[in-house]
TrEMBL record:
Upper classification of the organism: Eukaryota, Viridiplantae, Streptophyta, Embryophyta, Tracheophyta
Transmembrane segments: 789-812
GO cellular component, one term: plasma membrane
Family of the protein in this entry: Belongs to the RLP family.
Endpoints of the signal sequence: 1-24
Limits of the Leucine-rich repeat-containing N-terminal plant-type domain: 30-64
Record's compositionally biased regions (Basic and acidic residues): 769-780
Organism: Quercus rubra
Name under which the protein is recorded: Leucine-rich repeat-containing N-terminal plant-type domain-containing protein
Amino acid sequence: MSSFANNVILLWFIVITFLPCSWGQECSIEQKRALLEIRNSTNGSVFADWDGRDCCNAPGIYCDSIDGGVSIIDLQSDNAPSSTWYPNVTLFTIFDELEQLRLNGMNIGGELKPFCELKRLKSLAVLDLGNNSMEGTIHPCLGRIEGLSVLVLSHNRFNGTIDKAFCELKQLIALDLGNNSMEGTIHPCLGRIEGLFELVLSHNHFNGTIDKAFCELKQLSVLDLGNNLMEGTIHPCLGRIENLRQLVLSGNRFHGNIPPLLFSNQSEIVLLDVSSNQLEGVLSFSIFANVSSLVYIDLSNNYLEIETESPSWVPTFQLTRLNLANCNLNKRNGHVVPSFISTQLDLGWIDLSHNSIEGGIPCQLLFNNTSIQGLFLRSNILTGSFLDCNAKNQTSSIVSFDISDNQVRGPLPENIGHLLPLLEHCNMSSNALEGNIPWTLGNLSLVILDLSNNMLTGTIPQSLTKNGSAHSLVYLNLSNNKLQGKMLPRDSIMPSLECLQLSGNRFEGVISPTISNSPSLVILDVSHNYLSGNIPRWLYSHPSLVAVRLKGNRFEGHLLRRMCQMRSLQVLDISFNHISGGIPSCINNITFWKKSSPSPTGSNYFTQKGRLRYLISSSGLYFAFQSYFLIKYMEYTFNGIPLLLMTGIDVSSNQLTGSIPSEMGELSQIKSLNLSNNFLTGSIPISFRNLKNVESLDLSHNKLSGKIPSELVQLTSLSVFSVAYNNLSGRIPFEQQFSTFNMKSYDGNPDLCGGPLPRNCSTPNQPDPTHKRDQKDQKEGTRVIDTPFFFYAFVAVSYAFGFWVFFGILIINKNWRMNYFRAVDRYVESFLEMLSKYW
C-alpha cells in the first residue's frame, strides 16, 4: 500500500489511542469469550499476556474513546501461529462496532468465503488479510461489505478473476490484490469507483489492455499493474489523471511509444516504472523536464532509444533513483553518460548497464556526487585502467559497484580500500584486470566480491579472509584467474560465507580445512585447479552444503559413507579426478535427492536464514552465485536461483569400481546422473525406472553387462541417454523417449540389437525379417564373413580377377586391342589440345 493510505490508518490509530478513553465500560462477556477463543485457536500466540478481563488491555485491541467498544483488531505478524491458522470468523462479528480488522501475516489458510460473515459488521472500513496462505477465488460476497474503504488481499494464493461485485464498493479508496495468481482482464467497472485512490494489481496473470475507464479516476494516486501479462499501448489519456503520483506498468507486454502527452499534465508524478516491456521508438528525456516532483524513473529493458543530450534542456526534478539499463542510450551522441546527472544532487542509485558506453570509468559519478551509493555500468565498452583519473586523495560514498563485462585493464589500485571505504557489494568480473588482489580490500566490510574472469595473479591476501571483510563476506568469487598457492590463507575465518567459488585457478595442496569455520556455506566450487589428497572427512559432515564442485583436480581415495550425511546436497560434481572404490549404497540417505518437498536447508536455506537471495534483489548488483554442470554433453551454467532447481550427480572420469547400487534408483529428484568413464561392472539397476525427473543419464565407457532394462522407458523426462562402450547385450527398448535416441547412445556394445542399430534381433518367436539365413549361417558363417580379413581378401581377389580378365581379352582379340589403343590416343590428343588453349 502507498504511504498515503498507511498514514491515514496510522493517524486513525493515534487519535483512537491517545484521546481520553472511557474506561468505565468494559467489553461484554461475550466479547471476552471471543478473544479467549481466538487466543486458544492460535495456541496462545496472540493475546499471550492478556489477563482475560478488559478487552481494551489485550495486545492489538483498540477501543473507542467514547463508549469503550472494540473498534480495531490488529494482530501483528510477530505473533503469528507457527502452523496454518483457520480462524472462526464468526468470533470477529461479535465486535459489532469493529471498524478495522487487520490480520496481515497471520499465517491464515483456507478460502475467503468464511470471511463473508463480516458483512454483518456495518462499521467495518478496513480489512487487511495480506501476507497469508489463503487460496481459491476472491468471493464476490466481499462486495456486500458496504462501508469497506480499504481492502488488502495481497501476497496470498488467490486465483480466478475480479468479480464485478467489487465495483459495488462505492466507498473503496484502496484495493490491493498484488502478488497472487489472478487472471483474466481487469474489469472496467473498477474505473467507476470515483474515490479510488490506490489500485495495486501487480504480480498476477492479468491480461488484456488498460481500459480507458481508468482514465476517469480523478482521485487515483497509485496505479500498479506491474508484472502481469497485459499488452497493447500505453494510452495517453492516463495523463488526465492529475493526482497520479505512482505509475508502475513494468514487466508486461506493452508496446509502441511512450506518449509524450502522458506527462504534459503530470507535474505531480513521483515514480514512473515502465521497465521490461516491448516499448520502442526514440524518446527524448526532455519530456520529463517539467515533472518537478519526479524522484524515481525506470525505463530499462525495452526497445527504446533514449536521448538525453538533445534537444538541450534543464531538469526541474531531483532524482533519487535512475535506471536506463539496456536503453540504447545516446546512440546519436556517441553513447555518452547523460550530462544531466551532474545536476542530480540526491541521486543515490543509477544503472546505465548494457548501453555501449565508451571510455574510462566515469570518475565524476564516483567522486563528485556524494549521494550516489549504487553505480551499475555492467556490459558497456569501458576501457582504460581502473579509476584512470586523479582520485588519489578522494573517497567515494559508493556501496554497490558493478563494472562487470567491460574491458577495464591493468592492476587494481593498492589503496582501493581508501578510495571506496563504504564498498559492500562489488562486481568487477569479466574484465582484463591484472596483478595482485589489493590487501586493502580486507579493510572494508565487503558482503559480495566478484573478481572472476580476469587475469589476476598471486595469492589470496590474508586480510581478505581474516580481517574486516572476512567477517562480513557472504559471496566470494575469484574463479577463472591465475591465482596460485594454497586455496585459502592459513587461519582464515569467514563465518558468514555462503558461496565460495575459486574454480579455474592454479591452487595446490588440499582443500583448506578453514572452510569448516564457515557453517553457512551453501556453494563450494574449487574445480579445475591442482588440488590433491583425499576429500576431507569434515566436508562430508558440513551442515548446509547444497552444491559441491570438485571437478578436474587430483583428488584420490574412496567415496566415504560419510557423504550420505549431506542431507541437503543438490549438486555433486567430482568428475575428472582419481577417485576409486565403489559408490556407497547409503547414497539414498541424501534426502533432497529423494523427496520433492525441500529440506530445512537446501532450497529454503536462502529464504529462512541465508542472505544470498536477499542480496540478489536488494543490492542491485548483477551478481549470481553460479555453478557449471554437465548435462546433455554440454556444460551449463546455473546462476542464482535457477541453481536451486538443479539436482545432479557427476562422478564421471574417475576410477570407480563395483556395481551401481540399486539404491540410486530411489533418487527420484535427480535431473542429471553421469557415471561414465569408470570401471563399473554388473547390470543397470531396474530401480532406475524410479528416476522420474532424470533428463540426462550417462553410463557410457564402463564395463556394465546384461540387458538394458525395458522398464527404463518409463523415464518420460529423459532427453539424453548413453550406455555406449559397455558389454551390454540383448534387445534395445525402443519405445517412448527411447525411440528418440540414435546409434551413438549404444556404440561399442556388439551384442546389442534392435532399433536404432542396424543389427536386428532374431528369437525363436520373432524371426529376422530382413536376413533369412539359417541358424548355422548366423552362428558360424556370418562370423567369418564379417571379419576384416575376409573383406580385404575379397577386394584383392576381385581386383586381380578383373584386371587379368580385361587384359586377357586384349591379348587374345586383336580387333579389341587395336580399338582400345585408338581410343586412348584420341583421349590423349584431346587432352593436349585442351591444354594448348590455356597456355
